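pasting for ref. prot 1 ->
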Amino acid sequence: MPLPAAPGAPVVLERREGPHGEVVLRRRGEGAEAVHEIIANGCFLMDTSDGRSERLLVDAAHGALRTGNVAPSVLIGGLGVGFSFAHAAAGSDWRRIVVVEREQAIVDWHRSGPLAAVSGEALGDPRSVILRTDLVAYLRTTADRFDALCLDIDNGPDWTVTEDNSALYSPSGLASCRRVLRPGGVLAVWSAKPSAPFEEALRNAGFTAVRTEEITVARGVPDVVHLAVSPA
């Protein structure tokens, strides 16, 4: 979720009230130079100016998988502007791609709005599915299991978009993350900055090989991906 960079005053394309507050889609610039932004409850989430860190989130998860994970499956928490989803579907690394997004507005902007330019091909990929539901509840109740879980729903474990998202990074939330991962599966969490307390929380939750990788961005301090492996 890199900080916005496009110059000029943003234009609000749509504003919706949902069960978790207000979600806004904005545009900066025109034509090929236009940048789309998603704002939730007044908090900038992400934009289409630079999808590098979202793509590397998926690559880092795949790279951390243990050998033997042939054609693995990935669960992506948060659709956002679609970079992670589109990148996962662009190659042949993943056998199954499931995205969980709780905001109907964001799903609509991808299916029939401006963000279809990012995710259109991924939406038509037979390996992929978007589930419109709450991620915390899904992790707690689903019978599905995955080889990788990529989380990009907040600005990091220490900077959540809504207060109830903090449950995802709690001991019970991390236990749910472990529950949906197969043995040797990888949890990858995007963050705007490193979090030593979150690394410790991952270890306390039973994850192994906990580490943090920096992602160089075009401006500002590096983004990071927290990586952890579910024990065999």
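and prot 2 ->
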Amino acid sequence: MLAAERRDHLLGLLAREGKIVAKDVAAALGISEDSVRRDLRDLAAEGLVQRVYGGALPVSPAVVDYAARQAVAPDSKQRVAAVAAGLVQPGSALILDGGTTALAVARALPPELACTVITHSPTIAVALLDHPAAEVYLLGGRVFKHSAVAYGAAAVEAAQNVSAEVCLLGVTGVHPEAGLTTGDAEEAAMKRALAARAADTYVLASAEKIGTASRYRVLPWAKVSGVISDAARDDAVVEQLVGQGVEVLFAG
């Protein structure tokens, strides 16, 4: 089989089964695992797969920069945001992560809702300026321009001095095996710091993130209370998550 044919075969397999297991492909095609791994490296370099131990997973479309992400599935994000906003009770404190879905949550909060919103995202803070009843606490630190959030040692330290009833966390990948992932190691550390300061953490997962993975793990499934997603109830990945005991709050 030519290299171009192997490439098409791998991408087709990924689309059908949601993952590539290198040893299984090697056995099925009668080639070495090294050949499969080389093909996967080439596909990963083109941004077409996310390599993981033993093979590859679908790459998340949410790893592009902040401006580009605003155009990715806006209706999906609004559906997720509507459900997420409903988790915020009057008088409670919310830790709201950065990102475009979190921004949709900020806009979905009722203007008359009296609450405290703790965030490391300047864009979230600005979006809440027209919510007169919301107290906004902005965590500072080095700005990660890709996601328009503060992160790094100063931001993590600031996060350790707050607490809240609920944390609404954004990720770029949601996968039963890879867990909850994002594309930057320091951003992943910041997300862990935020989640650790809330009684309950829910993951904001619009449908395009379900079944995909990025390079850095944020949290294992045991550390979150549930996932909010507009993915179909009969989606194979969603069914696998539910089967693993993950609570899924369906949006729409």
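The chain has ten helices and 15 strands.
Residues 143 and 150 are 4 Å apart (CA to CA).
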